[in-house]
């Protein structure tokens, strides 16, 4: 996996390979199983503006760079494969968020467990601020692949880089594939800790004032990496 210091990928072939490497790393990190998640990266050149996304129905180990689907911001797919069924929220996040350069979507077990209870992650731990705010929201349920789900996801991500999706999974957004993947790992770690704390009782939440201090530190010193 590329480190955070890797320079931006300027070559389409290299970015296609990085999308596949990120999907494989997502499963290797234990935050996704099988083909249920998906990964994309924003891509533009003189003749194209859109993103590159994992195809539907192809195991990541068998995905070749040419099978990664190029999609325009209008949702037109180019390539030999069909895009992931969740392409709509990838497209809508790139349209809504100039800061989004890469998106990782997983069905991570602990994040999804909370999402099945329609519980977001409150400020039970200061690292919740790594997603950009006081909490990590849980978007309401809607059928996978629908515009309704996409609308819920974009709303839940307002002012945040990650959200849970009710009865479904999570989304992490980054300035690079490496950042999006690191954030997805961090969200799953937080979800596991929150779930464990809930086994004992209701965790003590940090105040808005304490979280403001942390958010300011992250802005000043950069986000800690998982
Ligand atoms: Zn999904």
Mean pLDDT score, rounded? Answer: 93
Extract low-pLDDT stretches.
Answer: none
Structural class: alpha+beta
Q: Largest sheet at a glance?
A: 8 strands, mixed
Q: How would the global form be characterised? A: globular
Strand content: 15-25%
Counted by DSSP, the helix tally is 6
Q: Summarize the amount of helix as a percent range.
A: 25-40%
Fold topology:
Layout: H1 12-28, E1 38-45, E2 48-53, E3 69-72, E4 77-78, H2 87-96, E5 102-106, H3 109-116, E6 138-139, H4 147-156, E7 162-165, E8 169-174, H5 177-200, H6 208-221
Parallel strand pairs: 6-7
Antiparallel strand pairs: 1-2, 1-5, 2-3, 3-4, 5-8, 7-8
Bound molecules: zinc ion (ZN).
Characterise the protein shown here:
The protein is 37% helix and 16% strand. By secondary structure, it is of the alpha+beta class. An eight-stranded mixed sheet has the order 4-3-2-1-5-8-7-6, sandwiched between helices. The chain is globular and about 50 Å long. The two termini are 13 Å apart. 44% of the residues are buried. The mean pLDDT is 93. It binds zinc ion. Zinc ion (ZN) binds next to loops. Residues 36, 86, 105, 107, 144, 168-169 line the site of zinc ion.
